[in-house]
Amino acid sequence: MRSATAALASAALVVVFGTALGGRCLTRSFGHGSVVCVCDARQCGALEDLRASPGPAAEDGSSAPFTIFTSSKAGMRLDRAEGNFTNGYATAGTKVGDKDDDGDDYDEGLEDGKTEQLLWSRGRVRIAVDVATQYQTVDGFGGAITDSAAINIHRLQPDVRDVLMRALFAPEGNAYTMLRVPMGGTDDSLRKYTYADSPGDMALQRFRLAEEDIKYKIPVLLNASRMTGGETRVIASAWTAPPWMKTTDQFVGGVLRRDLYQLWADYHVRFLSEYAQRGVAVWALTSGNEPINAFFTPLLIRFNSMGWTPLQQRRWLGRHLGPALRRSPFNATKLLALDDQRMLLPWWLDIVFRDPTVRDLVDGVAVHWYWDIVDPRIGLEATHQHFPEKFIISTEASSADKPWDLVKVQLGSWTRGEKYMTDILKDMNAWVTGWMEWSLVLDTQGGPSWSRNYVDVGVMVDHARQEVLLQPTYYAMAHFSRFVPRGSRRVRLQVERADLSPAGEDQPDEQGLSGRAQVDATAFVTPRDDVVLVLHNSGDSDTSVSIRDPRVGVARVVLPARSFNTLVYSGAERGADEASGEAESSGAGAGDSSESESEADGAGAAGASTEADGADAAGTSTEAGGPAGASTDADAVGASTEADGAGAVGTSTETDGTVAEGTSTEAGGPAGASTEADAAGASTEEETERVRRQRKEI
Ligand SMILES: *[C@@H]1O[C@H](CO)[C@@H](O)[C@H](O)[C@H]1NC(C)=O
Ligand SMILES: *[C@@H]1O[C@H](CO)[C@@H](O)[C@H](O)[C@H]1NC(C)=O
Ligand SMILES: *[C@@H]1O[C@H](CO)[C@@H](O)[C@H](O)[C@H]1NC(C)=O
User: Fold this and answer.
1) Structure pTM?
2) Region (Disordered) spans which residues (predicted)?
């Protein structure tokens, strides 16, 4: 039997510290905050199948294993650590006479699930997982096979190309299953073209796929499909109709001629047929890339575009594309509206779906991330509320798209990785079913791009050195795509922060430090019943997080400063007799109070403040509440993972991208120390000291 001390000491804390920068990854710094992982023909440390389930709980229910993977600004890349969830009853072998810090018999404390409570209360951020409450089903993650992406892939030597393809699509890589393919040219092409560039080709007699399709994109799509075991889903979007079909006779800007609405619909069906003949089944068509762009031409947008107003889009979908598609052999192809910035939600769809025929014909909504900074996610929630039967999918993201982004490619930028991570988390917490990057592979200039619209993405290739550079953005996606397969369901989380006052204000700890915990989270249950939490510590301090699932107990982990984390455990039920002890007891306040006081004292003496448990003593642990006007569970959950304070003050403001200025208040060394699943052998003196105190207290 394990003693209570052992339970706390060995199972309480997993300190996630990497042993070496990047683990197996060969890293390189370009001076943009973090590193890239370099792959070439000889090696690629990024390739490892991480999908194995940690397995079920111990037979006696005493412990349930979890695995946590961490990538950090300091250089960890999917580094692995292991630990156990613990439940109070497992420690019942403690010898009688042990006193806990209230002077009660320890065994008595155990009746209340004491060990769990200790673990739980010591998390600076506490996350309760509620797998019974489920939301949207995941479609998957991926990006666009543009001409540029496919040409970049093609230009690599075969063995390097193979490494890159595996990094994107294979189970040992990012396992991308959602691919967007442009119909014709885009800004990420070598030239402007469509498939019917002969003016007046009213019967599409000269419709031809391009060399870009046949030679570059389709081979990538076919290989990707093979690598994912046929799981690939392709979403096709046109950037513009042939110039002669438009009011302006230009590739850039203008709208479709009203008399050619049907021809443009037929063009889409023809495309589906051409791709099908070459072995590529298209899963969905969008209504066309970023229709709003056409109205900003040529001031801001200098690449292929065609405008729709919501009324025009409604007419074309309802009277032309929708019916043509449903009459065709490709009648199962899904139709997605909008395919533009989410700040247009729900306004755009309120207009498009006012026609019930159109609402019936359209399956979902495609959104882009570029202006998410001005959209505090409300549009997604409203869209779901107005049209709960539509799925929402994010079909484009890349960095440095703005004119004021002067340095387009910033290899190794952690900030850009964090922007992806933040956006995916927020999208997932607001009904989005999948998330796609723009061009999946660009060169180190951010192209090629005929329109010189260079951007920064997750996988960059250095053709001269025949190297593949995997960026922090690639890892931001990896933390989802490698662990959250299609068919996973998002589940409810309740997030509390120990360092928030009831007013939602930043609460200084006993030393006056106010390094604020900045941990955002989302969670899923996979088809094989694993629970996957994705945790983003965007703060500059290491932060302890307690995670509780009534089915397996409580785990506590320390997330390194500026880190992405994926924690996986099996959700298989353990013995039913445990259930009653799991409820968070109302006595938590009292227990925590004395616990935190003694810990605070000890900490003071040792000169090392460990955690902000003082907040508990003041009874300030706040449940995150919903944003203004929140009425559904989903809102509350979403809000709870948003910026600090949103819940308590009842607003829905977010603070995208803010990073705590606070000083580290956590025990622990800089990321880069050794991985520790055993607090007794913890990597810092403070941690050892703290554990010693805990033992004394127990
Ligand atoms: C988790 O618990 C099991 C069973 O008690 C034990 O064998 C294993 O070593 C523990 N794992 C860790 C990482 O502590
Ligand atoms: C596709 O796979 C074949 C066979 O393995 C390989 O020869 C070819 O280079 C691959 N092409 C791409 C673009 O991945
Ligand atoms: C779709 O087309 C197939 C044959 O191509 C047909 O059997 C099926 O009924 C059609 N479905 C709908 C909803 O029209």
Assistant:
1) 0.80
2) 497-516, 574-698
